[in-house]
Amino acid sequence: MLEKLWPFGRSRVRKAVEEALEKAFQDVGEVLEPLSELSEHEDHYLLRVEVPGLGPENLEVRLEGDQLVIEGEKREEERTKHLAEIVYGRIYRAYLLPKDAKKEGIEARLAKGVLEVRIPREKRPEEPPVRIPIQES
Length: 137
Known about the structure:
The chain is mainly β. It contains two helices and eight strands, in the order ααββββββββ. It has a domain at 32-76 and 86-120: Sandwich (Immunoglobulin-like), CATH 2.60.40. It is flat, with a radius of gyration of 24 Å. This is Heat-shock protein Hsp20.
């Protein structure tokens, strides 16, 4: 039936579909977003980011304005594989800092595949809400 619909024959169709699927699911150029959690404590925030298989030499933590950026790369070693489920590629994630976060004194620590970033908080007086009048046109 398929040969009637597709003039190139079954094996060519199958090969074309397999190549298209392989291309679609390749991780080349894909940016990986690591899983993370942000917890609030009295005097600091704690950001935990899962980065298994990466060391400090493969990671960068930096401030860009009001964002904390975590970037790195998980590189694949060339070897013969019999099973390939590990994902490799560029890791990038940017987090908007809370309003009461201090930019000075941020510390990063890596242990057992989890990057922990401690972000100090500063005490600020609570700002009352500001009402904005609505004009009728």
